[in-house]
Specification:
By secondary structure, this protein is mostly helical. It has two domains: about 1-155, no CATH class; about 170-325. About 60% of the residues lie in helices and about 0% in strands. The protein contains 15 helices and no strands. It has helices at about 1-15, 25-35, 40-55, 60-80, 90-110, 120-140, 145-150, 170-180, 195-210, 215-225, 225-230, 235-240, 245-255, 290-300, 310-315. Keywords: Nucleus.
Length: about 325
Amino acid sequence: MQSLRLLHHYSTVVYPTLCRDDTVEVWKTVVPETAFAHEFLMHGLLAMSAMHYAHSHPDQRRQYVLVSTYYQNLALQYFSTRLNDIDDENCEAFFLLATFIFLMTMCSIADPRDSEEPISPSHIARSFMLLQGIKTILNFRPLRRWREHGPLAPLLQSWAPIKPIHSGPFLLQMDRLSNLARELDTSFDIINPQSSCLLAIESLRTIYHSTREDDTIKCVSRRIWTWPITLSNVFIDLIDKNHPVALVILAHFAALARPFEYQDWVNNQGFPALTRPVEQKDWGNQGWTINIIESVARNLDKGWQEWIVWPQRSVREGIDVEDMDITTN
């Protein structure tokens, strides 16, 4: 009966918090139908629903956190051992499972009440590594085929051409970070600490430009959360190992993402219920960016703290990166 309760909760309460207008049918119909055909996706759906139920029913929170953890473990076990088994019949189910898993990991960072220890860069790195699984799934077939055929097309629409912006506080920060990254030692490996940091910074520039487009806030917010997908495994490993330059770059991503963390989310991030104003914090994302900033601050040596003053102020005071003082470090 518990699984039926959770399935009903997903179908009546959870799915509206996951969708934009053009993706309603995916979360309302496609996901449950696909889950009925693939047990591993049903585990992910039930884990997601149990996590939401725990947040929306405080008196039963402890019980449903345990239920969510149980289903998450089942889903993760399958996901981590079967990525090599992707085919045309199950690739959509794998994509949706990866989405659920990453979403729940992000929610646990945003609201770590059930964690036994403070959020660490290792937690963040693990959540980003899950997106590498999504990248693997998407690479199974050409992206054009995902967009033109199949039930997940609304989730994967391409962006309009981006018009570069050539000045502004955030871009000046990116210039400072690029100069910092170039001071790192290089190696004969194409992707090394220096190149991986520079690539992460350039990707952050691209994401920034995309957020300045004249588009709906929901479409723009989707773009923000593509940045972790673009990261190399080397860069994610640097985050995991508390590399100072990688952590400084991560802090600047948090500053850029802050205005969007309570908006609609397609690539596995924050979900406001459609019945609530977008300014109101949603159930699963009560402070992702502030927890990222605090984690970075805890794990940077004193000599590196000056490098995160700028993003710290942006996040802590709720200042858009475009409204930040250029002279602030």
